[in-house]
Amino acid sequence: MEFRADFVDAVGNTPLIKLRGPSELTGCTILGKAEFMNPGGSVKDRAAKAIILDAEQKGLLRPGGVIVEGTAGNTGIGLALVGNARGYRTVIVIPETQSQEKKDMLRLAGADLREVPAVPYKDPNNYVKYSGRLAEEIAASEPNGAIWANQFDNIANRQGHIETTGPEIWEQTQGKVDGFICAVGTGGTLAGVAMALREHNKDIVIGLADPMGAALYNFYKNGELKSEGSSITEGIGQGRITANLDGVDFDEPFQISDQEALPVLFDLLKHEGLCLGGSSAINVLGAMKLAKKMGPGKTIVTVLCDSGSRYQSKLYNPEFLKSQELPVPDWL
Ligand code: PMP
Q1: Domains of the chain and CATH, by start
Q2: What is the CB < 6 Å shell around ligand 1?
Q3: Of 91, 183, 188, 330, which one's alpha carbon is 20 to 30 angstroms from that of 244?
């Protein structure tokens, strides 16, 4: 018999899928790490697992304890499901602008969901800071303890990618990977994979695919945390150097607009059967830009973070797309 022991054991070991169109257009082999195939449906299952196991090892969580987090949704879904599997309650703070589908999934999983207005990080009521204060309050009265997962500045997050995502990519490509690129939410995925792959090959090229509205492109290009424009993508778009990004440099930063990335996403669904979320669009277009920069014949890996079904009401909704002056899939 071959099986995974439980939900937590089923996280990771996702396949690499060749993206035919992007590969043909660039003359490179562009591979997507199919993170939407994780049991909770996104790359963030890995961070949730790593953070919870780390807290258990440090003795911070006891059976019946509470996990508190501020999240765009996917980390919350991962924490709620890992929490259910291991006997913890979850309290999740989410900006109200995030997709209905993710909020519904959080409620379905039994998370105690607190929706807050979407305000910038510098505002004390920003969802991340709010969740930190809430965790302190809950910890004060909770007999079994409460932790703040703190995915942005808790480096157990990137450690999970150093130990799993990076080595998986190295093994699956038999070390023939020339470049890796993805967008940043917390930076756990990009920094963790970069650190793991550079251990094997210090010359590997690491790209950053930054959506409009994020400040990292300018930071890695010219040292200035500056943003312009905006994006409808969720879960990515960082304005500061989180602890997960700290100490890691990236070779090739790209700034990518929704306008340019969404047609790639729609093509992947229509012609390759891959129904993906918005951050995957930024990642795949980033991989194509990196491929063009590096020249034909290279193997470039990126991340397919979650499924398009998590954003049906926005990303695949013609009315919403038109209201944002974005391209609409021609079959919808
Ligand atoms: N894509 C999606 C859909 C996400 O939810 C996230 C996490 N916020 C990311 C990408 C970014 O991953 P990371 O936090 O590891 O940078």
Answers
A1: 7-37+164-324 (3.40.50.1100), 43-148 (3.40.50.1100)
A2: 42-44, 72, 74, 183-190, 234-236, 277, 279, 305-306
A3: 91
Q: Do residues 284 and 265 touch, judged by C-beta distance below 8 A?
A: yes
**Amino acid identity at 85:** A
> 109: part of which helix (H) or strand (E)?
none
The distance from CA 211 to its chain's CA centroid, rounded to whole angstroms, is 13
Residue nearest to atom 8 of ligand 1 (CA): 235
Q: Which residues contact 122 (CB under 8 A, 6 or more apart)?
A: none
CA distances from 283 to 16, 161, 162, 183, 279 (A): 14, 17, 19, 6, 6
Considering only CA atoms, give the Rg of the chain: 19
Full-model pTM:
0.98
**Residue to probe by mutation, ligand 1, list 305, 306, 310, most atoms within 8 Å of CB:** 305
pLDDT for the residue 25: 98
Q: Which residues are 121's β-sheet partners?
A: none
Residue from 108, 85, 79, 61 nearest 5 by CA: 85
Q: 3-state SS of 115-130?
A: EECCCCCCCCCCHHHH
Tell me how far apart the alpha carbons of residues 303 and 235 are, in angstroms, rounded to a whole number: 13
